[in-house]
């Protein structure tokens, strides 16, 4: 059974940093294309970053240069390092298989205050 558990969210001031983690079980994370998504109530879920099985990465323009996606194959865990956070980054963050957003976990809340 595929399971993803996000953690690492919290409340920070603008300019601060957080590192989100996504522990995967039921599949080998580095063999899948994985994404970090975020959603604000009343808005669609948006792709923030993606890492492919071959290691190539993608970032949404709004986070490029501030966020870094990575994975630890020994821990079967996906990460999102978020620096220079802005209030508009506030959202529930999810990790999921890129091909199946329904695989996402329960999410972790990020709140950035100005």
Kindly list the characteristics that best describe this protein.
114 residues; globular; 6-stranded mixed β-sheet; 4-stranded antiparallel β-sheet
Helix and strand arrangement:
Layout: E1 3-7, E2 10-13, E3 18-25, E4 34-39, E5 46-51, E6 57-59, E7 67-72, E8 77-82, E9 91-97, E10 108-113
Parallel strand pairs: 2-10
Antiparallel strand pairs: 1-3, 3-8, 4-5, 4-9, 5-6, 7-8, 9-10
Question: What does this protein structure show overall?
Answer:
By secondary structure, this protein is mainly β. It contains no helices and ten strands. The strands form two sheets. The protein has a six-stranded mixed β-sheet with strand order 2-10-9-4-5-6, with no helix packed on it. Strand 7 and strand 8 (77-82) form a beta hairpin. The protein is globular. The chain starts with a strand and ends with a strand.
In a nutshell, what does this entry contain?
The chain is an all-beta fold and 114 residues long. It has strands at 3-7, 10-13, 18-25, 34-39, 46-51, 57-59, 67-72, 77-82, 91-97, 108-113.
Element-level helix/strand string: EEEEEEEEEE
Could you tell me the radius of gyration in angstroms?
13 Å
Strand content: over 45%
The first-to-last residue Cα distance is 40 Å
Number of helices: 0
Q: Could you tell me the mean pLDDT?
A: 97
Shape: globular
Q: Looking across the biggest beta sheet, what order are the strands in? A: 2-10-9-4-5-6
Largest sheet: 6 strands, mixed
As a percent range, the share of helical residues equals under 10%
Show unreliable segments.
none
- Per DSSP E runs of 2 or more residues, the count of β-strands stands at 10
Helical/strand content category: mainly beta
């Amino acid at each position: 059974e595929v399971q993803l558990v996000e953690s690492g969210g919290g409340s920070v001031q603008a300019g601060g940093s957080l590192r989100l983690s996504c522990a995967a079980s039921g599949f080998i994370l580095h063999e899948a294309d994985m994404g970090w998504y975020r959603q604000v109530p009343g808005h669609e879920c948006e792709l923030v970053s993606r890492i492919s099985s071959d290691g190539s990465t993608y970032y949404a323009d709004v986070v490029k240069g501030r966020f870094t996606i990575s994975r630890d194959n020994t821990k079967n865990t996906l990460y999102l390092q978020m620096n220079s956070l802005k209030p508009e980054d506030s959202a529930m963050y999810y990790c999921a298989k890129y091909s199946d957003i329904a695989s996402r976990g329960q999410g972790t809340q990020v709140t950035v205050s100005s």
